[in-house]
């Protein structure tokens, strides 16, 4: 969900952020669930996307090397990256922590350095909706959308690869 949201926000800001999506526990190549698609389609401002073209991707070393930042939804995602891709552990941060703790001025690198110094916490988790009903997916999408907008506003004018 977050990848589509950040893509739409970047387009709205006239930015060309390079965004990859990857999960920490996915079945490679799976299609997006109908509940995920429906939750995304309820978010105003996302624009038109080819949701049917999405295929899941398991985070790998190439992704970790490529990324400037790895945004995680949950503590477990942060811990997975730090354990499995230790050399890139300083790139992973909970999205909610980035939004909460990154300074509002300075370079993206400075924002990231500050945000990653805060250990991930369960109270900053965005609960994984997997297995939930449509209302659970909708709630997750709304949470992500609010955080994505705050993240994008912090980055407005920055160049992020």
What does this structure look like?
The chain has 161 residues and is mainly alpha-helical. The protein has one domain: Rossmann fold (3-Layer(aba) Sandwich), CATH 3.40.50.2300. The protein is built from 7 helices and 2 strands. It has a two-stranded parallel sheet. Helix 2 packs across helix 7 and helix 5 packs across helix 6.
Which SSEs are present, and which pair or pack?
Layout: H1 2-13, H2 34-41, H3 61-66, E1 70-72, H4 75-84, E2 92-94, H5 95-101, H6 108-116, H7 134-155
Parallel strand pairs: 1-2
Helix pairs in contact: 1-7, 2-7, 5-6, 5-7
Round the Cα radius of gyration to an integer and report it.
15 Å
Name the CATH architecture: 3-Layer(aba) Sandwich
The profile of the biggest β sheet is: 2 strands, parallel
Distance between the termini: 19 Å
What are the segments in which pLDDT stays under 50 over at least 5 consecutive residues? none
Number of strands: 2
Examine the coordinates and then state which fold CATH places here, giving the name of the CATH topology.
Rossmann fold
Shape: globular
Structural class: mainly alpha
Question: CATH superfamily name?
Answer: Response regulator
Number of helices: 7
CATH class, anyone?
Alpha Beta
Number of structural domains: 1
The strand order across the widest sheet is 1-2
Q: What percent of the residues sit in helical stretches (DSSP H or I)?
A: 40-55%
Topology as a string of helices (H) and strands (E): HHHEHEHHH
Give the mean pLDDT.
91
Residue share in β-strands = under 5%
